[in-house]
Design a protein that fits this description.
With about 80 residues, the chain is α+β, with helices and mostly antiparallel strands. The chain has 2 helices and 5 strands, in the order E-E-E-E-H-E-H.
C-alpha cells in the first residue's frame, strides 16, 4: 500500500477548506483517510495552516510521500527548517 500525504477538500462551493491527510494513494480525494494530520484554510487572511509536524515526520519515516502542494504547506509551517 503506497501512502500519500495530501489534501482532502471540504467546505462548500467557492469556500474551500482542506485537511492534510495520510491516505492510500488509490483512494479518491475525499475517501477515508488513515489519519488526519492538520488543516489548511485558504479563505482566511493570511491563510491558516495548522499541521501536526511530529505526526507528519512519523508518516514520512514510514515511507509516506507528500504531494508538491503539501510540501509547500510544510515549508510554510516550518517543517524543513530543522535541516
Amino acid at each position: 500500500m503506497a501512502v500519500k500525504i495530501r489534501l482532502a477538500r471540504f467546505g462548500s462551493k467557492k469556500r474551500p477548506f482542506y485537511r492534510v491527510v495520510a491516505i492510500d494513494s488509490q483512494r479518491k480525494r475525499e475517501g477515508r483517510a488513515l489519519e488526519y494530520l492538520g488543516h489548511y484554510n485558504p479563505m482566511m487572511d493570511p491563510p491558516e495552516i495548522k499541521i501536526d509536524l511530529d505526526r507528519v515526520k512519523e508518516w514520512i519515516n514510514k515511507g509516506a510521500q507528500p504531494t508538491e502542494t503539501v510540501v509547500s504547506l510544510l515549508r510554510k509551517a516550518g517543517f524543513f527548517k530543522e535541516s
